[in-house]
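Input chain follows. Return structure tokens only.
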Amino acid sequence: MEKRKEGFLIDKGAQDKDFIFGTRVVMESIHAGKDIDKVLIQKEVNNDLTKELIKICKANQIPVVRVPEGKLNRITRKNHQGVVAQMSAIAYASLDNVIDNCYATGQAPLILVLDRITDVRNFGAIARSAECAGVHAIVIPEKGSAQINSDAIKTSVGALNFLPIVRVKNLFFTCRDLQKSGLQVVAVTEKTEDLMYSADLANPVALLMGSEEDGISPDLMNLADQKVKIPMQGRIESLNVSVSAGVVIYEAVRQRSVS
């Protein structure tokens, strides 16, 4: 169950996820630049060292989740001290670096922003289409997004190993920053009469996709520069979000190929 990895004690938990445990070990891992998906802290633990860890997590945009002791005990049988961190299956990218690199190499950024896409297989399928189409990055929120685990990587057929994934604290402020960087934010939604062909996707653009349950958040919808929909001819009102993402992404590819 246990193994050594680069000097840190790691447990193999459920679904082949890697976890490290112990307050100082987690802090050292963060300082060492390890990619951590989230930190689980026991609800009752609130000492000075834990408070320091929370500050470090906040500074490094690592989500912190308070959980019952029983959840931590199910992850590891060792003395976790009330702190367990789940290692990320991928290395997250910097959005600023992605955008700067696009402009530096003469490319119009094509960014995909996913608002609360929680299904792992949908996320993996979206990543597969995005990587094949040459999307420069996928942006996801820290909370309310699918876990990037072995299932997601498998569904993406390995695309998540090559496609930059950016995790941000707040999608609203990130979309606003993208606008300031010269990108048009285009919301893909059925709540409009404008078809996707009306949008200029050949220029710098961020395509905004919402959850299958309730679509794009109202605040993001209001922020969008344009709202477009995929033309539908059948009796069913909508496509699966991974299919919708692929359709719109390749409309951007088509426009860029003829511009």
